[in-house]
Amino acid sequence: MENSVKISIDGKSFEVEKGTPIILFLKNNNFEVSNFVFAEIEGKGSVDLKYRIVGGEKINLVDKKDPRALEVLRHSTAHLMAQAVMELFPEVQVGVGPAIENGFYYDFYRETPFTPQDIEEIEKKMKKLRKKNFPIERIEVDKAEAVKIFKEKGQTLKVELIEEKSDDIASLYKQGDFIDFCRGPHLPSTGKIKNFKLLYSSAAYWKGDENNLPMQRIYGTVFFEEEELKDYLKFLEEAKKRDHRKLGKELELFMISDRIGPGLILWMPKGAFIRRKIEDYWIEEHYKAGYELLNTPHIAKIDLWETSGHLSFYKENMFPSMEFDNAEYQLKPMNCPFHIEVYQAKMRSYRDFPIRWAELGTVYRYERSGVLHGLLRVRGFTQDDAHIFSLPKDLDRDIEDILKLNFKILKTFGFDKYSVYLSTKPDKAVGTPENWQRAENALKNALEKLAIEYEIDPGEGVFYGPKIDIKIKDMLGRSWQCSTVQVDFNLPDRFNISYIDEDGAKKQPIMIHRALMGSFERFFGVLIENYGGKFPLWLAPTQLIIIPVSEKHLDYANKVKEIFLEDGIRVKVDSRNEKLGYKIRAAEMDKIPYMAIVGEKEENNNNLSIRIQGIGDYGDIAINDMKKMIQLKVKSKSLDYNI
After folding, report:
1. What kind and span of H or E run contains 107?
2. Are 177 and 57 contained in the same domain?
3. Fewer CB within 10 A of the terminal residue: the chain, N end or C end?
């Protein structure tokens, strides 16, 4: 064979004519080409299947089962969407369009917002373009030529990207009349893109900076298999039903008011009640675990934040300072400097350790308006914060104790599935290598002693120390960042805190930052979505509602109510002059765990006819039996309503 060269594919050696595209070689050698999406070449990285073989390459094929293949499919679908948008709305400026978890998006600048009807038309156009099966071709040109191409098209945002990000040679991808600046790799043609769905559009900013152009971001999803797409769309429907913003409004749990300000939560009576129950449980468990509680102010003089380093490292996330009494004050973004002030109130002895201080402390952080999201991203929130001052020799044990309490509390709320990450030293860090190694070993030892599976997240520790992050999984399998345990060398050093050791010498303790829920606001939002608004009995604001069949049974309903109230059960009577079916539907909508229907039969038998939230009719039950069942479920913090 003329111009033959040797290559390796998935570890096997082949001879091939130089310049042959990988995809052609696969077809000629009876590979199942449809299984493969792109290739990895040792020393070159990811390439399209149309890559032309030079010789000597060690090629690994990537098939559809590889998660990276899905990223390529999604990125190619983002290009297909941009092509459709350009054909329908040629005036748009094209931004960027990456693959993301569960889908893709593309940003566009257009003065007129995209409507839901526009999104439908774009999806229809994508399907037409897919059927045309345009080849997706990689073109390499010098940087100046790439700039010229996009200037002629009037795509100034692309010109800006090329000037900022391109090497001397720019890689472009072309399909039909559409061309984009992109590193790739991509699918061989648009015909390979099949099972996609556009979802919605939202506001964004060019390069994520609110001072830049306002962009419109269109989101979509795509899968290799049709069944996978159907399953994901069902998942989205269920997630939509559980959206904490929707349920929060319907169940009157919380609200956000324009008069108060974005990202600031108003807890309504039902939500405030549930929050109080969670707080009471949290406090009880912390006292049992040997913690003491602190309460600290919402503001402090600016020099506290200078000493802590927050003004240097965190200023852009802090609200502007305020001045009065000839001093400058700052709303607190963190609780930790206050806890250090309490520590410094007197000299500490090694006998005092470990010192465990916890606080439900409300902090304030300036989150950009574009990222605010119900309870999940707010500007004022209450951290379930704790700081443990540890002796170096006890660091392993103290971290182990933190994790035990952490998983106990999470399990109480039904979270027994999670992913755990150990984040190690980043490039920019304070503290000695010896301290970092000691802290990482302590975190690792605690996880392994408790037989907790974890992954190493290299270089993702905070600048002041390594950390453990715990992402809980909800009923839909979604992951939520929740708990964190961080070892800190920085603040003890900056504040120069110390204790008197056994040998009489002053030494510096190690500080551990710890949050179990992260923030009450975020955790509450996750709970709403996890439970679908059906809070466990111990948290439910109303545990039982008594519904008289008619007005003549109202006296019996109130008599039963008093029996339950005497034992602390949260009960109401629906005394409205409405039909029985209406009252039952209202109780279902309010997610009340139990309904007791009472009429002539129930009054004569001195019992109740019970209906269970989300399940239906249970049947008759004696009043005392119902009372005992509720008490038992509350005491055990049961997560189900089954009788």
Report:
1. strand 103-109
2. no
3. N
CATH of the domain at 432: 3.30.930.10
Distances (CA, A) of 343 to 44, 238, 294, 333: 55, 48, 11, 19
Cβ-based neighbours of 511, under 8 Å, separated by 6 or more: 336, 340, 387, 388, 389, 390, 487, 488, 489, 491, 492
CATH number of the domain encompassing residue 22:
3.10.20.740
Helices of type H across 4-43: 22-28
> Which among 63, 78, 109 is the end of a domain?
63
The active-site residue out of 310, 336, 379, 522 is 336
pLDDT of residue 244: 97
Last residue of a domain, one of 471, 503, 531: 531
Catalytic residue status for 383: yes
Collect all residues with Cβ–Cβ distance below 8 Å to 47 and sequence separation of at least 6.
22, 38, 39, 40, 41, 184, 185
Q: Do 385 and 523 sit in the same domain of this protein? A: yes
Phi, psi for 379 (deg, rounded to 5): -105, -20
Query: For residue 435, which of 388, 386, 492 has the smallest C-alpha distance?
Result: 492
pLDDT attached to residue 1: 54
Q: Would 258 be classed as within a structural domain?
A: no
Is residue 365 annotated as part of the catalytic site, yes or no? yes
**Does residue 387 have an active-site annotation?**
yes
Report pLDDT for 162: 96
Q: Among positive and negative, which fits the CA dihedral 278, 284, 286, 288? A: negative
87, 195: one domain? yes
Q: What are phi and psi of 109, to 5 degrees?
A: -105, 120
242 a catalytic residue: no
Q: What is the DSSP letter of 465?
A: B
What's the per-residue H, E or C state across 596-633?
Answer: EEECHHHHHHCEEEEEECCCEEEEEEEHHHHHHHHHHH
Rounded to whole angstroms, the Cα distance separating 47 from 526 reads: 40
DSSP 640: -
What single-letter amino acid sits at 118?
D
Q: Find the length of the chain.
A: 643
Q: How crowded is residue 232: how many other Cβ atoms within 10 Å of its Cβ? A: 17
Q: Which residue range(s) make up the domain with 22? A: 4-63
487 in the same domain as 458:
yes
User: Which has the closest alpha carbon to 572: 595, 553, 598?
Assistant: 595
Q: How many domains does the chain have?
A: 4
- Decide if 467 is catalytic: yes
**Token pair listed for 426:** 């980043």
Question: How confident is the model at residue 512, as a pLDDT?
Answer: 96
Q: Please pick, among 192, 387, 591, 633, the residue that the annotation labels catalytic.
A: 387
In a domain, residue 272? The reply is yes
Q: How far apart are CA 400 and CA 468, in angstroms?
A: 12
> Hey, what are 350's tokens?
């090694």
The one catalytic residue among 467, 522, 570, 583: 467
Distance in angstroms (rounded) separating the CA atoms of residues 424 and 96: 31
Indicate whether 317 belongs to any domain.
no
The Cβ of residue 335 has, within 10 Å, a number of other Cβ atoms equal to 24
179 shares a domain with 237: yes
The reply to whether 43 and 78 lie within a common domain is no
Instruction: Pick out the chain residues at pLDDT < 70.
Output: 1-2
**DSSP 3-state helix, strand, coil percentages of the chain (rounded to 5)?**
40, 30, 35
Residue 142 sits in a domain of what CATH number? 3.30.980.10
Within a domain: 99: yes
From the list 125, 365, 570, 591, the catalytic residue is 365
What tokens were used for 292? 């003491």
117 with 227, same domain: the answer is: yes
439 and 389 in one domain?
yes
